[in-house]
Amino acid sequence: MRADAVANRRRVLVAAQEVFAEQGAEASTEEVARRAGVGTGTVFRHFPTKRDLLEHALVAHLDDLAEAARATASGEDPVEALRTLVADMAGRAPTKLAMAEPLLADDGLGEASHAAAERVRVVVAEVLERAQETGRVRRDVGVDEIHFLVRGIAQAQAFLPVAPEVRRRAVEVLLDGLRCAPRS
Amino acid sequence: MRADAVANRRRVLVAAQEVFAEQGAEASTEEVARRAGVGTGTVFRHFPTKRDLLEHALVAHLDDLAEAARATASGEDPVEALRTLVADMAGRAPTKLAMAEPLLADDGLGEASHAAAERVRVVVAEVLERAQETGRVRRDVGVDEIHFLVRGIAQAQAFLPVAPEVRRRAVEVLLDGLRCAPRS
Amino acid sequence: MRADAVANRRRVLVAAQEVFAEQGAEASTEEVARRAGVGTGTVFRHFPTKRDLLEHALVAHLDDLAEAARATASGEDPVEALRTLVADMAGRAPTKLAMAEPLLADDGLGEASHAAAERVRVVVAEVLERAQETGRVRRDVGVDEIHFLVRGIAQAQAFLPVAPEVRRRAVEVLLDGLRCAPRS
Amino acid sequence: MRADAVANRRRVLVAAQEVFAEQGAEASTEEVARRAGVGTGTVFRHFPTKRDLLEHALVAHLDDLAEAARATASGEDPVEALRTLVADMAGRAPTKLAMAEPLLADDGLGEASHAAAERVRVVVAEVLERAQETGRVRRDVGVDEIHFLVRGIAQAQAFLPVAPEVRRRAVEVLLDGLRCAPRS
DNA sequence: TATGAATGAGTGTTCATTCAT
DNA sequence: GATGAATGAACACTCATTCAT
């Protein structure tokens, strides 16, 4: 693939994430093309169906997330890192969901998405384990439960905007629930 | 309004809830009309835009929820009632969201929806308060937090199917978080 | 179906035959709509896919042909009627083929087309039999052979326009071949 | 023109005949390029419009046909050679028509096609004349009538598949018609 | 009032053609 | 000269909305 084609592909993916985040997955491919500064034909050359476009935009999004997560993981106090990561994932999730939902509703995520999701999962697992090793986070939950709960928090924000202090308290409830040790 | 008009209006609303629950809000108005056994013109006479149709279907849905909540509230042990209510809301949430999301994405919910949501809120508040009065539920959360968290749980299930035991543990974390008393 | 809908349906079919005869089956549905004086949506309401439009235009065309054939059959000398019918079919065939070819290339003719073609076949069989009863037309050919040869003559005209006297002589060869009795 | 350019031109023409024969003239230029193992740009360098590509593919096809006809003409009994030639032309005609039809529908064949067609015509005329000299083929038909009839037979087979015996009898009728002498 | 036919802008997608590499 | 990426007009088809019956 030529250098300019690579650049265009990248621009289309960036534009797609923006547009889908702002307008949802029903946004027109033409709008994505306009935002990327290319013709619609170019979008379709790189991503022959809208599904392909959504899927690859999702992959790009997940890869960004994984990279940010790795940065978070590397420095802080493990429990604090977990908190930061949860917040970050919650913040990005509405965009992620806008892209993932139509895929799920139509034959499920593809291979590329699953692979990218797995890359995210690996980092989250690492952060979680290190937090659990401090003894300040209960050990009977794993990455799946984290993902599940974070997803929930995230999606809840998609539903009517929520007052910041409400969200903060809700997250506290969640984090309190995560702390040691499960009481009956 | 004539009696048959009233009946038609009701049938359209019931059909709309069914159709939107099954196919999402992108379902065509014609499908709603077909399901209701009326012509599309009749649907548009009662609800001049698709937005109106979605909004009133949502109101009907919320009113059903409020009624069910009132029934739940009246009998059981208050903490058990809270648990039941959470489960019920979680079960209904996907349908609710299917209708609410496009409204939120386009100028927000209207007055009628807010009023209906408020009626739900009143019942949930009552159940929560009685649960808190038992001392077995932390007092620093209110209806908003409950709604927020429940919504999250509900929506999280819409996102990739989740293994039952994962969900169970996640709900336990949430409920643990809700119990007295916030630590640290 | 309402009276105006019936009228529109008829106008669309007439327009479709004209347009497909002039421009071939690749003519756009929008052109058909324009010619019929309706919106594209109306065309698609009556004929949900282009295939449907082609198929029903073909049926209308075949029904016209059958009716004309019946008129031809009723009066003349049987052998002359056969000659007239062959000429008429040859003249109409290019239009017929324009519509039939894409259908054949994509899953074959549908039931309605087959039924209409059968109605034509019945009339042609009748004319042929009466011509054979005069003893002036060989008896070892049937409707299928007639159709096959006429189709050939017809399609040959679609390929480069042919000088009239060339066509006349070619048809004479064909008719000579049809006359009694097959030699060696 | 450089040697590799000449080679590419030839490969494109061969690929074009294959592709148009298989998929019809609506096949994309990109498919032709892929089959030829070159880029689309190369196809368009040699044949600036699709019309040019079709026209030159047709010329190549007709030149192949003329060569084959010359071989046929050289050996056999003249009447048998005519029969063989008719069969060969009928077999190739669908491919020829696939390329010729869109040209005819859009401004007619160009000069190069006419020249190539004339080269074919010369060979056919020769075969016909020698057959007529045997006295076993009527003298009032010329190459045009042969072409016309053969084209018809060929195209008729493109239209709904025909039972073999129907075709055989139809061809007999045609050949009977060609034999001496025209009866009234 | 109820109906469902008509409308036409909008969507995803294809493809001949152009042009930077 | 060769390449294949970019372009955008065109197409089949959908659907919210209007309006004649």
What does it look like?
Four copies of one chain form a homotetramer. The first copy, chain A, has about 180 residues and is mainly α. Chain A is about 80% helix and about 0% strand. The first copy, chain A, is built from eight helices and no strands. Chain A has helices spanning about 5-25, 30-35, 40-45, 50-75, 80-105, 110-135, 145-160, 165-180. The radius of gyration of chain A is 18 Å and the shape is elongated. In chain A, about 40% of the residues are buried. The interface of C and D includes residues 104, 148, 163, 176 and 183 of C.
Point out poorly predicted stretches of chain A: none
Derived from helix and strand composition plus strand pairing, the structural class of chain A reads mainly alpha
Identify the biggest protein-protein contact and residues per side. A-B, 41 and 42 residues
What is the percentage of strand-forming residues of chain A?
under 5%
Instruction: Give the oligomeric state of the chains in this entry, treating copies of one chain as homo and distinct chains as hetero.
Output: homotetramer
Described by strand count, sense and barrel closure, the largest sheet of chain A is:
none
Number of strands of chain A: 0
Please provide the ordered H/E string of secondary-structure elements of chain A: HHHHHHHH
Query: What is the molecular shape of chain A?
Result: elongated
Instruction: Supply the number of helical segments of chain A.
Output: 8
Helix content of chain A: over 70%
* Termini separation of chain A: 59 Å
Overall pLDDT confidence of chain A:
84
Q: Taking Cα atoms only, what radius of gyration of chain A do you get, to the nearest Å?
A: 18 Å
